[in-house]
Structure formats: structure tokens, C-alpha cells
Design goal:
The strands form three sheets. The chain has a nine-stranded mixed sheet, sandwiched between helices. A four-stranded mixed sheet has the order 3-2-6-7. It has a single domain, classed as UDP-N-acetylmuramoyl-L-alanine:D-glutamate ligase. The protein has 340 residues and is an alpha/beta fold. It is globular and about 45 Å long. The chain has ten helices and 15 strands. β14 and β15 form a beta hairpin.
């Protein structure tokens, strides 16, 4: 008898994050002091996996990716081991150095700026993914736009992401995808062929707008009504059970039964915020853990916003995430913003 599927396998970006805290992001030719530095694992494959393991240490989590045979690669392998992430398919190569990101967080704005070296991301292919070797229930895949081979026509498909998603669903996995902040036209070009092969999609306000052709952010402010329209539009583009858009003020979601939900974000005290880097990964991990456990969409989103709020307390992407019960308790203590 086939073993019941449970847990998550993440696929795609594994990089070293060199996180730096600044008072503010300077103009070109400007000068500003780096106030704090921290090195951690980063990227969609790493962040989601670590967040899930911190939320629920009993949850099985594996990963698939590519790192270099170098000090950064060994650092990432050690990070996977430290959090109990199965890494039998976290491959290594001597052809190129490990991908890394210099992630700058601004205390003044709460925003972050990423400068990245693609390294091993450029060599990841669909052939690195063997779904016959996993019993996970969900694949969490990313990041389109930063993987040269995966972004191109590949394995007879529009791009390598489509090839991987189709193989995952054929093997019995449900699929979720994470996106990168790339130009909207490029994002749409890469993602549109993927949409028929996704079960869930959790993205930010800019990304959902790019996919739906909606102006969801105006002068830096999220248009919640436009996001609500956009999640419904994207839901109609594929076999989705759930499409979610998150933003600093909250989240909106659309479900296959026609429901549209809105939830405000946690009212995080300003003095508790260290950086926003990784908050989107944390939101996705919390929400997807709730989905995995069969919670209502309302409760899954509540865990997503609580996990995102907890993550804001650290400079790194995953450093402040706690157990799911502790994240929910923290959100309850801080309370929530006004309804959206």
C-alpha cells in the first residue's frame, strides 16, 4: 500500500543571505553606516522549509535545490541539517559558486533591498527534481526570474517551472509557488504557463496585480478592493483551491467556492520591528501549514498573518519565527489593525 503523503518539499532557490541593517537606504553616491550584520540561509526553498520546521518541528520537510561545492554551499547544507530538513536532493556542483544575496533593511522605511549573485541558480534544471523520492503532500516552488535554465523553454515545456509542476502533480503532490519581485511583464510571461498546474498561490500585492492586470498599488499604497478583484481573476486562470494576496495592511483571499475573505494584519509595535525581510515567506508558511492541517481558510490566514508578524522582530528572514501556538499568542497580545 502506498504511504500516505504528508509534509512539504521545497524546491528552487537556496542562497546565503548576508543581512545588513541600515538607518536608511542612501541615494547613489551616498554613505550610510551598516548597523548590524547577520548571515543566514535564504531563498524560497530555504526560508519556507525553516519556517515550517520552526512552526511545527514534527512536520516532515524536505528540499530540492542546487548549491556550490564551497564554503557558502557547506553553510547551507549545515543550515538544512540544523533544522531537520531532508536534503537528499539538495545537490552540489563544482561548476559555479553558491548563490548569495546582500539584503539591506532600512530602519526608517521598514523596507528591504536585495542585491544578488545568481551563481548556482543559473544551473538548476528540472532534472534535479525527482518526485519518486518524496512522500511530501505539498511542493513549494520558487523563484521564477532568477534561474536562467528554469526560466527558459525546457524539457518540451514553456519553461522549466512548468515541467517541474507537471511532474509534481503527476506524482500526486499538490503545488504552491512563490514569486520574486521582478518586472510585471516578465513575471506574467513566466507565470502564465504555470497557472494551470498550481493548487494554491500566495503572493504579494504587486505580484497579484501583475498577474491579473490590475493596478493594485497606487503611490505606494495598496488598493485592497483591486487586490480582491485580482485574486478572483487569478483564481479563474487555474485549478486553484486558494489564491491569496498579502500586503503590510493584511491579506485578501479567494476560494474555489466563490468566497472572498479579507483579514487585517497584526498591529505590530513599531519598536518591535527589526526588518521586513522574509515576512512574505513567513506568511506563506503559516498559511500553508494551516492548509496542510485542514484548517478553515480563515484560521489558515490567521496563522499566516501571525507568523509574518513574528518574523518582523529579526533582521534575518526566519530568526524570529516560533511555534505556531506562540505566533498566534503573540498576535493575540498585539491585536489587529482596523478591518480592510
Amino acid at each position: 500500500m502506498a504511504q500516505p503523503r504528508a509534509g512539504f518539499v521545497t524546491g528552487g532557490t537556496w542562497c546565503v543571505d548576508r543581512n545588513k541593517l541600515l538607518a536608511y537606504w542612501p541615494a547613489e553616491d551616498g554613505l550610510v553606516e551598516i548597523e548590524d550584520v547577520e548571515q543566514r540561509g535564504g531563498g524560497s526553498g530555504c526560508n519556507f522549509a525553516v519556517d515550517i520546521r520552526k512552526l511545527d518541528p514534527a512536520m516532515p520537510v524536505e528540499t530540492i535545490g542546487l548549491v556550490g561545492d564551497d564554503a557558502d554551499g557547506r553553510f547551507l547544507l549545515a543550515e538544512a541539517d540544523a533544522f531537520g530538513i531532508g536534503r537528499a536532493q539538495l545537490h552540489t556542483t563544482r561548476e559555479i559558486a553558491t548563490q548569495y544575496t546582500d539584503a539591506f533593511g532600512s530602519r526608517r522605511s521598514g523596507r528591504r533591498t536585495h542585491l544578488y549573485f545568481p551563481g548556482t541558480a543559473a544551473l538548476l534544471t528540472p532534472e534535479h527534481f525527482d518526485f519518486s523520492r518524496t512522500t511530501a503532500r505539498f511542493l513549494h516552488l520558487g523563484l521564477p526570474g532568477v534561474h536562467r535554465i528554469m526560466d527558459a523553454p525546457c524539457a518540451g515545456e514553456a519553461n522549466g517551472w512548468v515541467a517541474v509542476l507537471k511532474r509534481a502533480r503527476a506524482a500526486g503532490l499538490r503545488t504552491n509557488m512563490e514569486l520574486a519581485s521582478i518586472p510585471p511583464a516578465r513575471l506574467l510571461d513566466l507565470l502564465r504557463p504555470c497557472l494551470p498546474h498550481l493548487d494554491t498561490l500566495i503572493v504579494n500585492d504587486h505580484e497579484i496585480g501583475a498577474l491579473a492586470g490590475e493596478a493594485t498599488v497606487r503611490d505606494g499604497v495598496t488598493d485592497v478592493d483591486a487586490c480582491a478583484r485580482a485574486v478572483q481573476s487569478v483564481l479563474a486562470m487555474g485549478p486553484f483551491a486558494l489564491v491569496v494576496a498579502h500586503f503590510p495592511g493584511g491579506a485578501v483571499a479567494a476560494t474555489r467556492d466563490g468566497a472572498v475573505l479579507r483579514q487585517p494584519s497584526v498591529r505590530v509595535p513599531p519598536e518591535a520591528i527589526a526588518a521586513a525581510n522574509g515576512a512574505g515567506d513567513a506568511f506563506a508558511a503559516g498559511t500553508m501549514l494551516g492548509v496542510h492541517e485542514g484548517w478553515s481558510v480563515e484560521d489558515a490566514l490567521a496563522l499566516g498573518r501571525a507568523t509574518a508578524a513574528a518574523s518582523l522582530r529579526a533582521l534575518s528572514t526566519t530568526g524570529a519565527v516560533e511555534s505556531w501556538r506562540d505566533c498566534l499568542a503573540l498576535a493575540a497580545r498585539w491585536g489587529f489593525r482596523d478591518p480592510i
